[in-house]
Fold this sequence. Notes:
The protein is built from ten helices and no strands. Residues 162-192 have low confidence and may be disordered. The chain is mainly alpha-helical and 192 residues long. This is ENTH domain-containing protein. It comes from Intoshia linei.
Amino acid sequence: MKNIWKIKEFGDKIQNRIMNYSDIEILIRDVTNDDKTMLNPDVMDKIAIQTKKYIENKEIVQLIMSRIYEDGKNWRRLYKTLLLIEYLILHGSNNFINSMRNHIYEISKLSGFHHIDDSGKDCGINVKFKVEKLTTLLKNDLNIRTERKNAQNLKNKLCGVSHTPIHYKNKNSQDEGWNNQNPVNEIVGIVQ
């Protein structure tokens, strides 16, 4: 299975060179692909940083909207695009938020999105929920400020976790030094 992903990754790199995609376009295509993998937060951070530059922000918005206008066959790509929009609203520039507000009508039209896969599962339900969340968020400045602050606090906590050793408590352990107030416990929980 790993070999298949390596081949696909290699094919994507060749396509990026042949099509002469910009660096930003490569990042957006990478994060909004139709694979089952989760979005890469490092790539999304790179895109969020680029939204602070005027020309790059315009390109990002254009590329995101082109993903939204694609046909509904690639529902996963559409859903990942909506996740990216949410991430950029929470971590990107104010210009990006204003640009997305200009496209709120196009985004809200996706509230009727349907896609039934081969097994009969409605994959469009996640798209509908995300569209509802994004349109509600984009319509309320106070909500955006609150969500951005919460996202930044969570990001700071998670960055702190990556440098903190994770401790596990065994039910039978007599470890007197165990501290249940450890911030790691709040995020990952105690494994018992």
